[in-house]
Amino acid sequence: MTSPLRIVRLRRNRRDLTRRSAEGRALRAGFGFGFVLSAFAAVLSLSLVLFYADLVRGLPPIAALPLMLDPQNGLLLQPTRLYDRTGQHLLATLAPDEAARQYLPLDPQASPHLPQSLADATIALAGPNFWDQPGYVIEGWKDPESHPTIAQQLVADLLLWDEPPSTRRAIRERILAAQITARYGRGQVLEWYLNSANYGHYAYGVDSAARLYFGKSAAELDLSESALLAAVSQAPALNPIDAPQAAEGRRAETLDVMQSLGLIAEIP
Length: 268
Prior knowledge:
By secondary structure, this protein is mainly α. It contains nine helices and two strands. 53% of the residues lie in helices and 3% in strands.
């Protein structure tokens, strides 16, 4: 006959064995889940790396911007010249009236320079949070036709102009906008934009637009004229020559926006 003490020991051993077996199964399940989770994380990380590599493949160098917009020899600041097939004889110069066009800095210590009213009016319409943004916003990335920041518009116009609109291009645009803002700063981005933006009626750059619409240098623009050109840069077709009434209405709207943002005390 088995003694009571032996029976207690046997029962205790069975309980210990059952508990160790359950703990072993739980441990193995935990290791299995951890392995699956780690594998999933690795695959996800690899997919993200490959996706990003595809996005940045063939991105134009942001160093092209200073070359295009150098105040003295910028490629975009030169009139378009047509030569014969030998490349020796000039046949025609497009927009010859742009010969007097200047690249104007924002620096108030420079002479001449762009007026602060123009910078304020442009920022009021193109992005009131300009000085706090990293150059891009996430919102709107599904709309390839939208360029919601000044840096993104600059990239779309000068670096990605030959890429068809797509979600991929919208993401690439944001990558480049972040890069140019980080490298060159917001002030330089704004200056480049003002000196290269489309102001309608074949006028590119605000000095060209000021001479076309007002017969003066952009350095001489007053508040009202600055507001009008800021509005035209957002909708070039609505310029004073092609759509004078619409341009005037948008000038008034721009001044209202500037006043609401506290950029001006009263509307002239």
